[in-house]
Sequence to fold (322 residues):
Amino acid sequence: MESNEAGSMLRDAGLRVTAPRLAALEALGDHSHATVDEVYERVATGLPGTSLQAMYVVLAALTGAGLVRRIEPAGSAARYELRIGDNHHHVVCSLCGAVEDVDCVVGEAPCLMPSHTSGYLVQTAEVTFWGLCPACRALETGDDAVASVPAAAPHDQPVRS
Amino acid sequence: MESNEAGSMLRDAGLRVTAPRLAALEALGDHSHATVDEVYERVATGLPGTSLQAMYVVLAALTGAGLVRRIEPAGSAARYELRIGDNHHHVVCSLCGAVEDVDCVVGEAPCLMPSHTSGYLVQTAEVTFWGLCPACRALETGDDAVASVPAAAPHDQPVRS
DNA sequence: ACGTCTTTATGAATGATTCAAAACAACTGA
DNA sequence: TCAGTTGTTTTGAATCATTCATAAAGACGT
Fold:
């Protein structure tokens, strides 16, 4: 028996092993940070008869079971990824919306302990970096037209807070 | 002439001074982290005939001009705040969605310089802390029922990355 | 193989946000 | 002060991502 990893991942998480779920996991393995729609399209090629709504349900189940992480960058649809439990953050391009992993962070990361939390019991921290992806950078410098920012999400917070 | 601060803020930003804009700024001054809908309701009381869509336009203009910051916590509608340019982050309650400011961060914040950025030109960093607000904390401990989490957004990233 | 309970398929509904065109009002110069 | 120009708001409808409801299908334990 080969490539049964995904199957046991599901079983271990208390979920039944179904074709749509296996396909979704595989799709995310190939193409991380995919939107529901992207996962659906990939799954649908090898598994006709699948519906977009099914993918919503599947991904919600996988997320709930902790097999998949859901990120939701401002101004874009939700995206899913397989890498979980390894403390990484994201860079997203403010022009095209591309997302990459960032293997954060140096040492103890004192700045991720907020100074005072207004009585909140802080459980998790989420860091998103915004900037220009290599492709969009090239465009900006190539045609040095002042490239009006095509609206992704407003950011006014300088790096290194 | 008094209380013309907002007026000159607008003018200085190259925007015309209009009643809806002044009202929106005032509403945000009273109640930060408000959704478009909340701003609209507050504005509508003193300025009947205002429409929700107008608030969308107004807030977009203010955001574009840098007078207002838009935040978009996963799982909730966009929220707006007046505090800008002062490098602060947010704690949001994963149960009720309440948002508070966090006057981050200690010193140089080395962790907000990602180790390698895959060629991205990083411009801004955004930090969101997730946890339980005082009220929801009380509920959790009060009735020690295992309080099923009412779904706000999935988080699996431990604090101090 | 059987029955039960989870999961998927299908279709419709909701909520937040945006678009388009026409009415309106703020600033400019006369 | 007045009219023109142009930026804003109004109104109504459309779009997108996501969720809900019901019934059919499938996975797993016996």
User: Anything to note?
Assistant: Residues 15-16, 18, 20-21, 49-51, 53-54, 57-58, 61 of chain A lie near DNA strand C (CB under 10 Å from a C1'). Chain A is about 35% helix and 20% strand. Helices of chain A lie at 5-12, 19-30, 36-46, 52-64, 134-142. The longest strand of chain A covers residues 121-132.
